[in-house]
Design brief:
Blueprint lengths: L1 H23 L19 H4 L7 E8 L2 E5 L2 H9 L13 H5 L7 E8 L2 E5 L2 H8 L2 H15 L9
Antiparallel strand pairs: 1-2, 3-4
């Protein structure tokens, strides 16, 4: 009977997670299961200075997305002030947003600027972005007001 109960609970959890992904909207770059940042710990960028995979055992939900953390301390910091750790442009590529597109941000291509986390799609793109960070942030901020609620495919 315990096996049956575990299967039902697991199925219900899967449906709940999948449903939250659809509720997250298009302004957040999350997987089809609602996992944000491809499972990387958003706090680690600020505390450890490096992208760090989070544990599936240490999670928190925010804005209908699931975030993973490397430590309980990181989870507590996030829960105390989630907005301080979220990537800009919903985790989409900062350079792409500057160009008016929404491309997946790669959590291994990142930079913190003025206390904000920015992701880019690749090393090459990040190198272009770094050449004029203030200018690209200005363009991305302006574009984000019109593209945030649009499906990425509709911008192609």
């Amino acid at each position: 009977m315990n096996v049956f109960k575990s299967l039902i609970t697991g199925a219900a959890l899967s449906v709940a997670v999948a449903t939250s992904a659809f509720a997250a909207g298009v302004d957040l770059n999350a997987s089809s299961t609602g996992l944000a940042l491809q499972g990387y710990d958003p706090v680690a960028y600020f505390t450890d200075g490096a992208p760090t995979k989070g544990s599936w055992k240490i999670t928190s939900a925010y804005n209908d997305a699931t975030y993973r953390f490397a430590t309980e301390e990181h989870k507590a910091a996030f829960e105390a002030d989630p907005e301080a750790y979220l990537p800009e442009y919903g985790g989409y590529c900062a350079f792409g947003a500057a160009m008016g597109f929404k491309f997946d941000g790669d959590p291994t291509h990142w930079k913190i600027v003025d206390g904000e986390l920015f992701l880019n799609i690749s090393q090459d793109v990040q190198e272009r972005w770094v050449a004029d960070i203030p200018g690209f942030i200005e363009k991305a901020d302006a574009n984000w007001t019109t593209i945030a609620d649009k499906d990425p495919a509709s911008l192609q």
